[in-house]
Amino acid sequence: MQIRDFELDIPIVSSDSSVLSQLSRAITSQLGQASVPIRFLVSATTATAYRCEIAVIDGCAPPTFPPPLFELRRRKAENIDSFNVVLVIPTGIGCSIGGHAGDANPVVKLLASMCDTLITHPNAVNASDLNELPDNALYVEGSILSRVLMGTAGLRRVRANRLLVVIEAHEDAAIRHAALNSVAAAQATYGLASPSIVLVDPSLTLSSHFTQAGRATGSVRHLDRLVETLQARRKEFDAVAISTRVQVDEACRIAYYQSHGEMVNPWGGVEALLTHAISTLLDVPAAHAPMVESMAVARQDLGVVDARMAAEAISTGFFMCVLKGLQRSPRIETDPARMMTAGVLTASDLSCLVVPDGCLGLPTLAALEQGIPVIAVRGNTNLMQNDLAALPWAPGQFHRVENYLEAAGMLAAIKGGIAPSTLVRPLPAMVVAPLPPQRKAKVSEIFAQRESTSLRRGADGADWLAEARPRG
Where residue 472 falls among pLDDT bands split at 50, 70, 90? Predict the structure, then answer.
């Protein structure tokens, strides 16, 4: 099995069907029986077409087919017993906040303070040896997060997971030891349960490259080696932490650290493809950390780098953030009956989605279909070229703000049931729509009938009173 991605232009069609339905039909028609889609986004929208990027697993036998990526189960209503927010900062699209090495941790902590539960994904908080995930936040692999919004999966909180740790059998012992010592440190400092560590040799191969739009992606070869290992041990673990090399051109790696944050992180895109595949095929939480290529690279002085990538400059193992995040990552429920049981968080429990402006993928499309309010943050600039406001939102469903400070205020307004337009001046003008002529005639007729009936009842009443009045 291998993972690849490709680009596809899908014409915009004016019809009664939803945007999600149109895209789903067009993409599904392009895929073969042995190709399983695992990731999808719209990189740009023009007047006539959606420019789409799709990642697929090739070589899947029919028994391992997962539920379709585009399957939507509409929620019947919103559960307002709690206020739960989804924060998405997509990997590999050059987000100015959260696009490097866990530099969205402050955003996660801010938005988590505004809700009962914040659901986010590894890209937002993974910072090599650092991970500042708040207690009321859930660390959810990106494809699982999309499935929750689509209504095909639920999340069950856990006290702790048993982690199966998969480490590439790097030929340099010092690099292997850095990964193994990370696991040992996690066990000693925050009580990680990791009953099994697997050294994979030969390993699967992750290679990074960039799309025409400039997004970081890649390919994964020999995925079956990892899947077979996980399937053989499936009863031993609840989540999977993976540390392997990612093939990145040396010139690209150096240019990234010298770019002052202007270049797209080349590692995250292909890492997301791997974890999407594992979570899709096995229904388990998964996260990946890139293993350093060689000790020469590990000893290289990068100088003082941009603060957003500094967490990578001070680490050798890059693994601690993954271990901490997966320790309490929620279990995945896909059986409809189990999704309805107490304690499982589903699409019905979601109150709002926060995304960088322009990001059009399954989370945004699912929120559009499910009636979930969406906040788009203009200040988190990225490579995507989509006008989210042009989508067919319900009145009051879409909100565009300048930054995450404003997003926190918008969440407070939504949570409090306050129309955001009433918090600025001047207040919006009241709109009183005149009745059309035929409607006016009908209303006049109704009032005339009621007046006639009232007069008749009045005359009858007067007669009755006259007869009932005592004589003499």
Answer: very low
Tell me: do 270 and 168 sit in the same domain.
yes
Given a cut of 70, whether residue 463 has pLDDT beyond it is: no
pLDDT tens across 363-376, in order? 999 999 999 999 99
Q: Is the peptide bond before 428 cis (omega within 30 degrees of 0)?
A: no
In the chain, what is the straight-line distance between the N-terminal and C-terminal CA atoms, in Å?
A: 108
The DSSP code for 102 is S
Indicate the residue among 294, 329, 364 that finishes a domain.
329
Task: Specify the pLDDT at position 465.
Answer: 44
Give the Cα separation of 75 and 149 in Å (integer). Answer: 9
Closest by CA position to 389, among listed 380, 379, 378, 381:
378
At residue 159, the 3 state secondary structure works out as coil
Q: Is 136 inside a domain boundary?
A: no
pLDDT band, residue 57 (cuts 50/70/90): very high
For residue 296, what pLDDT is reported?
87
Cβ atoms of 94 and 84 within 8 Å: the answer is no
Instruction: Count the alpha carbons within 13 Å of 212 in the hemisphere toward its beta carbon.
Output: 11
Q: What is the CATH number of the domain that holds 346?
A: 3.40.50
Which position has the token pair 């990946």? 288
Indicate if the pLDDT at residue 209 is higher than 90. Answer: yes
User: Residues 169, 281: one domain?
Assistant: yes
Q: Are residues 364 and 318 part of one domain?
A: no
Q: How many domains does the chain have?
A: 3
Residues 51 and 100 in one domain: no
Beta-carbon count within 10 A of 134 CB: 17
One domain for residues 284 and 243:
yes
CA atoms within 13 A on the CB side of 344: 19
Question: Both 85 and 19 in a single domain?
Answer: no
User: ∠ CA(219), CA(220), CA(224), 5° rounding?
Assistant: 155
Q: Model's pTM, two decimal places?
A: 0.90
Which alpha helices (H) appear in 283-328, and where do they start and end?
295-299, 310-313, 320-327
The one-letter amino acid code at 131 reads N
Flag whether 452 is in a domain.
Answer: no
Q: Rounded to an integer, what distance in angstroms lies between the CA atom of residue 385 and that of residue 213?
A: 10
In whole angstroms, how large is the CA radius of gyration of the chain?
28
> Could you list the residue range(s) of the whole structural domain that residue 80 is in?
73-117+144-152+341-429
CA–CA separation, 327 vs 157, rounded Å?
Answer: 11
Same domain for 314 and 187: yes
